[in-house]
Amino acid sequence: MAQALARLRATQVTAPQPRCADPPHGNMTAPLMTLLATAMRHRRNAHLSRRQFEAERLLRFRALVRHTLPQSPYYSAIMRERGIDPDRCAPSDFPILTKRLLREHFDSIVTDRRVTREAIVQFLQRSHDPAELYLGEFHALHTSGSSGEVGHFVFSRRDWMRGYAGLSRLSQPRLRRTRCVFYGATGGHFGGVSWAVTACQGLGRWFFDVKCVDINSPLAQTRSWLNDFQPHVLGGYVSGHKILAKEQLEGRLRIHPEMVLSGAEPLSPGDQAWLGTVFGCPCINLYGATESMLMGIARPGDAGMTVFDDELILEVGSEHILVTNLFSRTMPLIRYRVDDTVRFTDLKSPYGPYPVIEQVVGRNEWVPQFRNRQGELDFVSPHYINEIFVPGVWRFQMRWLDETSFRFVVCLDSGLSASQRIAAIGAVKARLHEILGQKGLSNVQFGVDVVEDIAVDPATGKFRLVLPGGEAPAH
């Protein structure tokens, strides 16, 4: 197997902005039809037994193997090496795919030769508009996710709509245009903001007025704008929602949403109930990932979180899950490792033949706070740190020292020249200065340290993006 694979190696938005322009080059008809057809199949699935559901899904997995994997040199080599029969195979016949393997074999995993890792990195370095598509055809995203390693993911427009169809479970028919706000990291090709802007493209603009409010904007500016806009739907991260909820309780924020959507961080049942009380509306807990889009939903009153695995096959380990993605044909992901902790229950979902997991999943990062020049405390969202993208940097971590300083630790690609290493470190410093300046925290001091690797927390075995008190895990 190793021999077979060896042959294959060959500007930030600070104010709320509508990001709803249709992608250039080509019409939206085929992606829209894909979205509708997928959503209709999901509705049919809700009436199947679990046995029928899994049998139909296995057939679609085998169709993916039969028609898509031969276009991937990486998977073609695996199938030859292992003697995998497309008509009889299951995901367990394939090896685990880690983020590091994906990075190393990116060009041979993808099925469209126009998509290369170098070209995607250059595109993501240049483009900060989540509505812009690579070559006008592909959604390109990046994240460090739960492992702390930078990953790149590419979807065709039809791939994207197949995955996006799961989000239709959140929408309800309305007789007026729905005002929606996404409060999160917005100045790049990140998962949450990319999902948000898709809602108001094409025909969606007649039904949704979507604005993206950067979580790194000064809190006073965000509060004033939200009071003026008065969103019907407030989406984002629980850490951001809790900060807004405090503003609401103290009377500085005065909004009346009809729904709060919380994702990307664990949301406890207590926080879910508290946010619902503060804002006077249901708070819905979402579980998703950049590479697999929406996976789970927990509405108020649900005993657990329903995993809608229509387009996914999940294998659960003690400290991770393996995700097989059925909607992505451009970048096939079979048994892709995600370092989230998921625990299945024996509960029956009220929404169909779907498994139910405990609601608290993933990792919960500590939120660093710093004092500005006026002596006021403000925060930097871990999600903004998480979405830092600098070519040549494959892992990073913030080590908070006090309310006026921190260290930023980075791991660089081993193949960088001396000048490229200097350029990468300079780019990291420039990006951090940009983030701090945007937040009004330009007085905060920091340094950048280069290390070979960053150890996980020895107590939990998990990677931590932000360390309080400057503590460093032992290697």
What is the CA-atom radius of gyration, in angstroms?
Answer: 22 Å
Structural class: alpha/beta
Alpha-carbon distance between the two ends: 30 Å
Give the fraction of residues assigned to helices.
25-40%
Count all strands and give the number: 19
As residue ranges, the low-confidence spans are 1-26
Write down the CATH topology of the largest domain.
Rossmann fold
General shape? globular
CATH homology group of the largest domain: ANL, N-terminal domain
Count of domain modules: 2
* Number of helical elements: 14
CATH architectural grouping of the largest domain: 3-Layer(aba) Sandwich
Strand order of the largest sheet: 4-3-5-6-7-8-9-13
> Beta-sheet strand percentage?
15-25%
Largest sheet: 8 strands, mixed
Mean pLDDT: 85
CATH class of the largest domain: Alpha Beta
Walk me through the topology.
Layout: H1 2-6, H2 29-45, H3 50-67, H4 73-82, H5 99-104, H6 106-109, H7 117-126, E1 138-143, E2 151-156, H8 157-164, E3 178-184, H9 191-198, E4 208-214, H10 219-229, E5 233-236, H11 238-249, E6 259-262, H12 269-279, E7 283-289, E8 293-298, E9 305-307, E10 312-316, E11 321-325, E12 336-338, E13 356-357, E14 369-371, E15 377-379, H13 382-386, E16 393-402, E17 405-412, H14 418-438, E18 445-450, E19 466-467
Helix pairs in contact: 2-8, 11-12
Please give a handful of descriptors for the protein shown.
Rossmann fold; eight-stranded mixed sheet; 475 residues; 31% helix; GMP Synthetase, Chain A, domain 3; disordered N terminus; alpha/beta; four-stranded mixed sheet
